[in-house]
Description:
Elements: H1 2-19, H2 23-38, H3 46-58, H4 63-75, H5 83-95, H6 99-118
Amino acid sequence: xxxxxxxxxxxxxxxxxxxxxxxxxxxxxxxxxxxxxxxxxxxxxxxxxxxxxxxxxxxxxxxxxxxxxxxxxxxxxxxxxxxxxxxxxxxxxxxxxxxxxxxxxxxxxxxxxxxxxxxxxxxxxxxxxxxxxxxxxxxxxxxxxxxxxxxxx
Length: 153
């Protein structure tokens, strides 16, 4: 429990420094979090990666750091960022007039979503899908497709 609170504190610090546009401080906290991992801690959470990528994207000179964060994220076994972060990267690359990089992020995100959709078990009936995955107000029609929620962490 203490480790979980400590990781949340790192994430909060990264987010705060990012909002203050203090990329140097945000990256310093990030490196401290990563070095704690090297000394036996667990890999940074998806939320920690998203915080450092957000902080990087918000800073005018941080796009390179955002890309490095994405590369490290994959190295640590996370498949992809959420749609919001991918869109932010695409926007950042567009503003930097780096169309090829923007298209690369878009293509990668599209391919990952296609692969994820292809791996869904279509033989599962909607009534067998966990009720927590269904949004309130959806039809109770047994022929309706299930609503799938992707865990962000």
